[in-house]
Here is the input.
Amino acid sequence: MIDLWAWTTPNGRKVSILLEELELPYEVHAVDITNGEQHAPEFLKVSPNNKIPAIVDRETGMALMESGAIMVYLAEKTGRFLPAAGEPRYRVM
Here is the structure.
C-alpha cells in the first residue's frame, strides 16, 4: 500500500494517474496548500521540504517527495513504463 500526500495540482495528479495505471493500492491524504497544510508538523515528517506530492511505501518504508523521483521509484518497483538501462531509458526520462 502506498500513502500519497497530494493536492489538486498537476504534479499531484501525475502521481495518482501513475498509481492507477500501475494498479497499485494507495490511500490519498489531501494536503490543502491553499490553507498552508504543507507546513503542518505531521506532513513535514513525510516531506521535510514541505512539497507535494509525497509518498510512503508501507511495504518498503521508502518515503519520497517530488513527482519525478516518485514516478521513477514506482516504475522501478513494478518494472513497468521505464526501461531498465541504456538509450531506451534515457529517451523516456
The chain has a mean pLDDT of 94.
